[in-house]
């Protein structure tokens, strides 16, 4: 893989476009996901999940990009990401992943962790208590990015949550409308009001 993330992720962009927007058969979709995972797992193996002493900014960028991509296509790091994300929501920290991978882990816990409404609410309460503004933002963004149609209304309702800061209230609408898998629900929410 190229050392520049923007170059190395070009192939993934085409594969993800094909998998989500072009291919119809589930077998073909699975092949595209597997091809993506096979292409980017070696980079992840080389860079690892934890910070290394001699990491460069490019290494951290490539690690975060590859990790996010592999989690999204449900590759090998997904179970680690889900476990670390659940730990981050409940304890506010984890030693399982480099800090630059935390946003992806939080999102993986929400999207792939099979959480219910009570867990979503408990995690929202944890996010509101978070003092680190960056981590608070990651937690709220992850919750807003749910793919579960039963939880999407909770993401939309962040808009009226008086405990959130003004810059946090629209996260649900932005997250739901920026993903083709949840776009229709976001459009219906906005146009019905």
Helix/sheet category: mainly alpha
Cα end-to-end separation? 46 Å
Largest sheet: none
| Unreliable runs | none
* Helical content (DSSP H or I, runs of 4+): 55-70%
Along the chain, the helix and strand elements come as HHHHHHHHHHH
Rough shape? globular
Radius of gyration from the alpha-carbon trace, in angstroms: 17 Å
Strand content: under 5%
Counted beta strands: 0
Q: Give average pLDDT, whole number.
A: 93
Number of helices: 11
Lay out the secondary structure.
Layout (H helix, E strand, L loop, with lengths): L4 H4 L1 H13 L3 H22 L9 H16 L5 H14 L10 H11 L4 H13 L3 H12 L7 H5 L14 H7 L5 H9 L2
Helix pairs in contact: 2-3, 3-4, 5-6, 6-8, 7-8, 8-10
Descriptive overview:
It contains eleven helices and no strands. The chain is globular. It is mainly α. The chain starts with a helix and ends with a helix. Helices cover 65% and strands 0% of the residues. Helix 6 runs parallel beside helix 8 (133-144), helix 7 runs antiparallel to helix 8 (133-144) and helix 8 crosses helix 10 (171-177).
List keywords for this structure.
193 residues; mainly alpha; 11 helices
Summarize the structure.
The protein is mainly alpha-helical.
